[in-house]
Amino acid sequence: MTRPGKQNKSGARALGAGRGVTYSTSPLLASKTPPWRSRFLVALVGLAFLGLLARAIYVQVLHTDFFQKQGEARYAHTLELPASRGRINDRTGQTLAASVAVPSIWAIPKEVDADGDKRQALAQALGLSARELDAKLNPESHFVWLKRLADDETAAKVKALALKGVFQDREYRRKYPEGEAAAHVVGFTNVEDKGQEGIELAFQKELQGRDGSRSVVRDRLGRVVEDIGDIVPAANGQDIDLSVDSKVQFFAYQRIRDAVAENKAKAGSVVVLDAQTGEVLALANFPSYDPGNRQNLSGEQLRNRALTDVFEPGSTMKPFIAGLAMETGRVTPDTLVDTGNGKYAFQGAVISDTHAHGLIPVREVIKFSSNIGATKLAMQMQPREMHEMFTAIGLGQRPQISFPGAVGGKLRPWKTWRPIEQATMSYGYGLSASLFQLARAYTVFARDGEIIPVSMLRQPHDQPVPGIRVFSPKVTQDLRLMLQAAAGPGGTAPEAQVPGYSVGGKSGTAHKQEGRGYASHKYRAWFVGIAPISKPRIVVAVMVDEPTAGSYFGGKVAGPVFSQVAAQTLRLLGVSPDLDVKSQIVANKNAVATEESF
Predict the structure, then answer these.
(1) CA distance 297 to 314
(2) Could you tell me which residue ranges the Penicillin-binding protein dimerisation domain spans (predicted)?
């Protein structure tokens, strides 16, 4: 048995021996390290540095654009600087449409941090339900419009909530000071400020301008910290100066609106042209709409009837037939035409007048609006002659005007006409035209036989524009006297007369087409005239659709509208009266003159 004391001494000696061995004399280091191992390690370290260098060159030199964009996306933003849309002005500089800066509210959904109460308050301020707001604030979306073109009250309520992730910018909203009166002229824009109707659509390219941009750095709260890069300024849209006179437009709208109500009609239109320059002074329709508030709009309100609705022009064609017959030397104003007892059998059909006029001169064919007289004048001509004349006054062709939606009506090739069709065309059946086309056609009578181009834009001067000759000045002067008689005592439209001014024109009344035939109790009434007769300055065309209050003749329904619109327009244009008498209107209750072609 070993003694404890002896054992402890042996262990101490062994420990002392262990402490005496140094690291440099360790047996483990007795063998030398191979040289290739150190070189290999150095090579690995070198390759690692080369890899890092290559990566740095790849990131900093070769593909710097991509990584720059990725970095900038986290702090840099490009703000759009919207261009202000150009204004639409009338001929006097009165604003018909202008852009006003209003707030638009947007959000970054994943950054919106709001409790239930604040979300509810936000929904109420925006006029949304809680479900609608939740749908907009889908966390997967990076950007969402909460309300575009908001009012100032809504913007103030949202701002007061001070919600993180909800922001406001300024956009432009169109304002239309003339409202319903000029709606069919100016049209309107959508929420993206792009034209949808009227002049807004026709001149979209000129009005829209070009948006600019601004690059900025934003902090995590969306606040702009600083600008970076160059600012690209916005280029505002071009202003458009129309030929329309806002005062004439407003008065024309009021009168056609009142006429529709008085006659319990379906709709109505008025077109006013400057007979010297071809400028459109007014183009009004009823029903209309407010272009600044288009909720619950119907197609009836949107239709620009003066340009888009076509109808058989009826008796308004008779002066042109008489003019062609005189121009070709077949008749003179005093040539007698036998209209018989008011019934004329022709090609198996019966052509009727509302009264028996017997043997009358050509001038009274127009005054009494004789269908039989017009037929007998027309049948002296070749179909080609009539077709060329109709084409010359713009029928069957889309008006060359800077305005969307204008239609050309219907005028079939003359080779397809049957004799009965040639006859009915002489008093305005079998072809169709818009009210705007009729107004332009009547510039022939106002301009000594020339038809002139028309324009919705303000012309740089007030001098007469050149036209295309249809009739000679002498024939046209005779026609003006016939038109004056038609709108005078004993004619078909004495109520079209204007106190202090000589006027002339032609009324028309026709059954409306329905299916393949004509509606027995639906009429369209119109009157197209010029004033003053001594030196014509304006052409006014009026149409009332489906009057149902009792009277439906053009002279009775549309004539008074012509009278009032012509009188107001002549005064606004500063045209001096050419008559000494206060009123030329003659009311003859015992012998009411009627025209018309049924």
Answers:
(1) 32
(2) 81-227
The H-or-E segment that residue 62 falls in is none
The upper half-sphere exposure of residue 448, i.e. CA atoms within 13 Å in the direction of its Cβ, equals 8
Residue linked to tokens 């035939």:
517
Residue carrying structure tokens 């078909």: 492
Residues forming the active site: 315
Any residues with CB less than 8 A from the CB of 10 and at least 6 apart, and which?
A: none
- Could you count the other beta carbons within 10 Å of the beta carbon of residue 511? 20
pLDDT tens per residue across all 598 residues of the chain: 444 444 444 444 444 444 555 655 666 556 666 777 777 888 888 888 888 888 788 777 776 766 666 555 555 666 666 778 899 999 999 999 998 878 888 888 877 876 777 888 888 888 888 888 888 888 777 778 888 878 888 888 888 888 888 888 777 788 999 999 999 999 999 888 899 999 999 999 999 888 776 666 655 555 555 556 667 777 889 999 999 999 999 999 999 999 999 999 999 999 999 999 999 999 999 999 999 888 778 888 999 999 999 999 999 999 999 999 999 999 999 999 999 999 999 999 999 998 899 999 999 999 999 999 999 999 999 999 999 999 999 999 999 898 888 999 999 999 999 999 999 999 999 999 999 999 999 999 999 999 999 999 998 877 888 999 999 999 999 999 999 999 999 999 999 999 999 999 999 988 887 777 788 788 999 999 999 999 999 999 999 999 999 899 999 999 999 999 999 999 999 999 988 754 444 444 433 444 454 4
SS3 305: helix
Q: What are the angstrom distances between the C-alpha of 344 and each of 356, 373, 376, 456?
A: 11, 10, 10, 44
Other C-beta atoms lying within 10 Å of the C-beta of residue 83: 20
- Closest to 291 measured CA to CA, from 186, 147, 443: 186
Q: Are 556 and 526 in contact (CB under 8 A)?
A: no
345 vs 370: CA distance, rounded Å: 15
Q: What contacts 525, CB < 8 A, 6 or more positions away? A: 507, 508, 509, 543, 544, 547, 552, 553, 554, 556, 557, 558
The residue type of 258 is D
Strands 336-338 and 359-361: antiparallel
Task: Tell me the two tokens of residue 406.
Answer: 């204008």
Q: Helix or strand or coil: residue 494? A: helix
Closest CA to 506 of 406, 384, 597: 597
- Residue closest to 483 by CA, chosen among 450, 505, 507: 505
What's the CA angle centered on 456, arms 453 and 460, to 5 degrees? 80
Q: Which residue type sits at 521?
A: H
